[in-house]
Specification:
This protein has 256 residues and is mostly beta strands. The protein is 9% helix and 40% strand. The chain is built from 3 helices and 20 strands. It has helices at residues 65-70, 145-151, 202-212; strands at 2-8, 11-18, 22-26, 41-42, 47-49, 57-61, 80-84, 89-90, 95-98, 107-109, 111-117, 133-140, 143-144, 164-171, 180-185, 188-194, 220-222, 230-232, 237-242, 246-254. Strands 1, 2, 3, 4, 5, 6, 7, 8, 11, 12, 14 and 17 form a 12-stranded mixed beta sheet that branches. A 5-stranded mixed beta sheet has the order 9-20-19-15-16, with no helix packed on it. It has a 3-stranded antiparallel beta sheet with strand order 13-10-18. The chain starts with a strand and ends with a strand.
Amino acid sequence: MRYVRFARDGQNFWGILVRDELIQPLTAAPYLHGVPKGPSVPLQAVHLLAPCEPGKIVAVGKNYHDHIQEFDSQVPENPILFIKPVTCVNDPEALIVLPPKTLSRQIDYEGELALVIGRTARNIPASQARHYIFGYTCLNDVTARDIQKKDGQWTRAKSFDGFAPVGPLLTDEVDPDNLTIRTRLNGHIVQQSSTSHLIWPVSDLLAFISETMTLLPGDIITTGTPSGVGPMEDGDLVEISIQGIGCLRNRAKASQ
């Protein structure tokens, strides 16, 4: 199934995407047991929102060999985790507001496959991980690179409001271990890889993370970015495409 979250007539709804043109509304988020209710509405008549409402975003750093080489780093012994606050969540087609230059002069895009948790997960073995994943989506792990280098850790650099665009939809119809991922900047391909190149695949990540913290329905785990990360400037259009999921589009905008 393919799920979307959308705004219409001043209200927010969940729905099932049917034939790329109609949405069957749901009573609640699908991972909270929402069921169909009411007539279908045209996709063209709604505004798409981020297809999840997480309590937390658990992100993974340095999970592609080529990205590690890009920063002249060593492969870590374990997945490197950091948390992005929920105020980072941003919608498809929404603006990524760049911080003032007095705070950061380099804001980078990072195209990533993300997964959304479907049921409470704690101490999950990798062999059972797929049973706890509701679906998959695209995410842009926007990063203030100069702050990251200055601080020596990642929280402040990755936590500005709107620094996690997500979408356009949430689906369980893809194989997360073999998906083509591309990022385009103003129409030019700047990142291109496959999730088959992840150092720690999705199931291993979920097992590792759930050893430390309880994951709740709606939480996001984002899996790392391939090589080719780079800066966005005012007016730049970033498009993250993942096979079977779609294209997440956002434009950067300078602060007023």
